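thread: overnight batch results

M.L. [08:02]
morning all. the overnight job finished for the chain we discussed friday. pasting input first so we're all looking at the same thing
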Amino acid sequence: MSNFRPIIARINSSALKANLNQVKALAPNSKVLAIIKANGYGHGIARVAKALSQADGFGVASIDEAIQLRQQGFLHPIVLLEGIYSEAELPLVLSNRLDLVVHCFEQIDYLKSLSKHEQLTIWIKLDTGMHRLGFTSNQIPAFEKSISEVTCSLNINWMSHFASADIEIEFTDIQLKTFLNQVSTKLGAKSMANSAAIQTLPESHLDWVRPGIMLYGAYTMDSAKLSLKPVMTLSSQVIALRWVQQGQSVGYGNSWTAIQLTLIATVAAGYGDGYPRHAPSGTPVLVCGERMPLVGRVSMDMITVDVTALAESVEIGSIVELWGENLAVDEIAKQSGTIAYELLCGVTQRVPREDVMSREK
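M.L. [08:03]
and the structure it wrote out:
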């Protein structure tokens, strides 16, 4: 498809590889399940899987994502992180050699339909305090009875998920101890560490770590002293320039008014492309490599930026970086009251993705 609008998301596969290497350096004794659900966090699932081919396995949210990877020729273990949603999916699970998370009794009942000749790897999810998915401590006896009624050959692993590994050390420690107490006598691999725990809690690394957002160069913990590389750079161009007088407003709702003679650059990017609609005036935008403030409301296809300081150099066609290589997506997310996950996953399909290689040698 031709790209007639100037907005584009450039994807640096070398950065993905470098970030994976940092995960391996942090958890050298653990296998890596690279989380590439939601179309590779908006980067393109096949592209991301290729760049992360040195991971030990992939985590996805649904069978359609897994089948796409198999059709692309990836032979890695692929884990369905929410398991299956109906018994009807089991033939696809078996034919595509997929691993399942099992988090409820209904999913165990699905497995009871399999013959004793079938083989399957499952990850039993335990609820250690997030209260979203998984078996609680008091359900374990009933779980063990139910799973014993499954006649197919099962390879059983164990996992749980941290609720707040980035902000609540005490609660995170309780979750980890709860998990370890529950699985200490169990055979099979164990996994708990997400991106935050990989960076700050080495005792949680166990057999498998599950990095997600850090692979894409976001969500660096201050204490980790890492240098993760941003993978997506979202950029566009200036499509209009105009001077507005003191007292004149810009954009919908007249939400921003010039306090002096101001040069406004209109940029081809808006919430229709995935730029956050609630980004407030003052949110940084890089114009010609310089930080300039967003002014006025974000509209569907355009934003407006105060470029008075660049009056001598800015022009129609000047490059604008919305986030990426030189402007952290975490900063834009924080300004907009959200998280980097949402911004990266939210870049819409009308924005072309283009592969680029690192400039580093």
